[in-house]
Design a protein that fits this description.
The chain is mainly α and about 100 residues long. The protein is built from three helices and no strands. Keywords: Membrane, Transmembrane, Transmembrane helix.
Length: about 100
């Protein structure tokens, strides 16, 4: 296994290697796992929304507020919540229309 170049560090004595991408340091931010058990806020909200659908609306607000610019890996889960909130709203409106009309 290629260990990569070793960089001198005054504190560590040159024992550690750089794991970031030298050309684009923004890619290093994706080395961290996603919150909520590694699934991300969006997918955990989608699953919890089946218990309490108001969570879908909270996550849809995050999606519409461009929360995914912080971490693009969250985009698909938050979009799924926005779709679930829309479907829930439509089903609720149709149900209320059938009951009261």
């Amino acid at each position: 296994m290629d260990k990569g170049p070793s960089y001198d560090c005054k504190d560590c004595g040159g024992k550690y290697i750089l794991i970031n991408d030298e050309e684009d340091p923004r890619l290093a931010m994706f080395d961290k796992p996603l919150p909520c058990c590694g699934c991300g806020i969006g997918w955990c909200s989608l699953l919890l929304g089946f218990v309490c659908p108001l969570i879908w609306y909270c996550a849809a607000i995050l999606y519409l507020g461009s929360y995914y610019h912080r971490d693009p890996r969250e985009r698909s889960g938050l979009a799924a919540n926005a779709i679930a909130a829309l479907v829930c709203t439509i089903v609720t409106l149709i149900t209320l229309a059938a009951i009261f009309l």
